[in-house]
Specification:
Shape: globular
Oligomer: single chain
Strand content: 5-15%
């Protein structure tokens, strides 16, 4: 099952702090928030320098150690590019994390990284991606429609702030999607403690 394989891979890649055990992919909501805070801070630096990563995914998020205070490093800048007037238009990214505007061959900017961040947050909190299918064309159609669910029981214990952050990142219209600056001030990101 592709969904189960991805769950295991994400747990190992994204955060092995919990040893891969526990519900929701092996990390508590509070642990996920701590990781996401650091990813957003890294993205803020990248975007402030007018670069777009364009391939943000768990495999490109590295932890310096297995402890809560681990430094987070965003890796693999092979697709990164400086934002130009009129936007970027190269078709790139990884299937589960690619933003709909890339699939629709529309010019884009750093908002594609924010879409990918929304997918990463979703995966960290439940262990599987919001858009999934074994057939890549079907997967891309699901992404272009932007419809996903917070399935029960996996999402029952997740805070409203976490769901709200995801809902504001996985927005089809990139002009309405949260920017990195807006994400930095989102209640889920700035909060000190969330449910475990």
């Amino acid at each position: 099952n592709n969904k189960q394989q991805h769950k295991k891979k994400t747990t190992t890649t994204s955060s092995s702090k919990s040893g891969g055990s526990g519900r929701r992919g092996g990390v508590s909501e509070d642990e996920a928030r701590g990781v996401v805070q650091k990813i957003v801070a890294g993205l803020a630096h990248i975007h402030a320098n007018h670069f777009c990563h364009r391939d943000l995914k768990p495999e490109n998020i590295l932890l310096s150690n297995i402890y809560d205070d681990a430094a987070i490093k965003i890796a693999d800048f092979g697709f990164a590019q400086k934002i130009t007037p009129g936007g970027l238009n190269t078709d790139c990214g990884s299937p589960w994390y690619v933003a709909p505007e890339i699939l629709l061959a529309k010019p884009y900017d750093t908002s594609v990284d924010m879409w990918s961040l929304g997918v990463i947050v979703y995966i960290l909190l439940c262990g599987y991606p919001p858009f999934h299918d074994d057939n890549q064309l079907v997967l891309f159609n699901k992404i272009k429609k932007g419809r996903y669910k917070f399935d029960s029981p996996n999402w029952d214990g997740i805070s409203g702030d976490a769901k709200n952050l995801i809902s504001e990142l996985l927005v089809l219209d990139p002009r309405r999607r949260l920017s990195v600056e807006q994400a930095l001030s989102h209640p889920w990101i700035v909060g000190e403690k969330v449910p475990s």
